[in-house]
Amino acid sequence: MTTPRSWMHPAWVVVLAAVCAALHVGKIPPALPVLQAALSLSLVQAGFLLSMVQLGGMTLGLAVGLSVDSIGLRRSVLLGLGLLTVSSALGGFASGIEALLVLRAIEGFGFLWVVMPGPALIRRCVPPAQINTRMGQWSAYMPLGTAAALLLGAGVLSVWTWHVWWWLMSGVSALAWWMVWTGLAPDASYTAVQASGQEGWPRRLSQTLRSRGPWLLSLTFGVYAAQWLSVIGFLPTMYAGLGVDKGLSGLLTAGVALANMTGNLASGRLLQRGWQSRWLLFIGFGAMALGALGAFGEWQGWGLPMAGRYVSVILLSAVGGLIPGTLFALSMRLAPSPDTLSTTVGWMQQWSATGQFFGPPVVAWVAASMGGWQWTWAVTGSCCLVGMGLAVAIDRALRVVAPRAEQGLP
To answer: How far apart are CA 56 and CA 64, in angstroms?
Structure first.
């Protein structure tokens, strides 16, 4: 799969497909104020609508990771994009919260099928010396997709209804399906791939769950994702409560999401230059804790002005972006074996989805209970402390991991 079939390198095809999948995660935040008004949603219901897309990953992330090799990497991406296309199209016809929640869960499964094979596909496309850099680029799919959805959604929702927004996202997924179909070389024979995958899945499952590395990476990803989506997901709602114009709100939130990419890309370059992963994780979690405190903290009614709060959120997102890029790069080293990489990434996605599923409702519950967002920093700060502890454990695991150079891994 090292030779592109089109004008675009296959590694970029994989990244763009993931960006299109991330659009469906990011399409809810700009629509939340509209949906709350149209469907009379409570703040907690809005939180579950935001996080329901993670239900599939929370319950079946590992199972999907195991099945990817049985189905084929490219086929998995195509299947996921197909699910996103159909479920988003049907969501545009929904008239109540119940149907939207069910379809959001289905979109979650589609999202998994798209992003799970990504690292393994990229590893096939690039030489080992480029892996760290490419993993940093890969990890940018979520902030890029989220930012694009926030920017585009603000414009679409100012002119049309939220139903049109859902149908537009369906069309984008269909375009991505065509891009993958024409831009990635076909998988091996389905019969051969399926037989090989079914024969080895119990071994891959056992190796992954008995190894310390996948657990540490997954839990760290979970505490990171919980706070990032909680902050990004509710920013439009917070700004709407402050009377910020809808277009400006979308622009400000998109800027925060895009800032995350700087950390994603920097992580790959810094790892390539010899920076130790534990310091990147420490810096990332430390910046997220300080950023949340500045953005949401209030003392006796006093807090930072709007400009200062926005700079704090930018800090949280930008420097926090070091974390996912570092974790994806470490998955190449801490996966028990080369053929358990998709399974390890599946376990990481399962815990990431778990964090994203529970994070927004918890933050919403705290905000509703306290009459405002001023204690959000306590929730996210707790996640940062856990993340720093896990970073120490990851560093210890790296010290005892067997050399992988003969397997072509960094």
So the answer is: 9
Q: What is residue 41's three-state secondary structure?
A: coil
What SS3 state is found at 396?
helix
Classify the phi-psi angles of 372: left when phi > 0, otherwise alpha if psi is within -120 to 50, otherwise beta. left
Longest dimension (CA), the chain: 66
Q: What is the pLDDT of residues 276-332, one digit of tens each?
A: 889 999 999 999 999 988 888 877 567 788 788 889 989 999 999 999 989 988 988
The per-residue pLDDT for range 48-61, each reduced to its tens digit, is 777 677 776 777 77
Q: What is the CATH number of domain 10-179+186-407?
A: 1.20.1250.20
CA angle 247, 230, 87 (to 5 degrees): 75
Among 191, 173, 179, 190, smallest CA distance to 73 is for: 190
Provide the 3-class DSSP secondary structure of residue 302. strand
Integer Cα distance of 261 and 297 in angstroms:
25
Report whether 60 contacts 183 (CB < 8 A).
no
Sequence-ordered list of residues with C-beta below 8 angstroms from that of 226, at least 6 positions apart, any chain: 355, 356, 358, 359, 383
**Which of 348, 347, 320, 349 shows the shortest CA–CA distance to 227?**
320
Question: What's the CA gap between 54 and 7, in Å, rounded?
Answer: 33
Q: Which residue in 201, 226, 217, 185 sits closest to 5, CA to CA? A: 185
Rounded Cα distance between 223 and 221, Å, is 6
- Beta-carbon count within 10 A of 79 CB: 18
Question: Which of 90, 108, 107 lies closest to 99 in space, CA to CA?
Answer: 90
Amino acid identity at 363: V
- Give CA–CA dist 280/136, Å, rounded: 13
Backbone phi and psi for residue 302, each to the nearest 5 degrees, phi listed first: -110, 135
pTM: 0.73
- Whole-angstrom Cα distance, residue 111 to residue 17? 10
pLDDT class of 408 with cuts at 50, 70, 90: very low
State whether residue 9 is helix, strand or coil: coil
Q: Which letter does DSSP use for residue 372 in this model?
A: S
Are 243 and 115 spatial neighbours (Cβ–Cβ below 8 Å)?
no
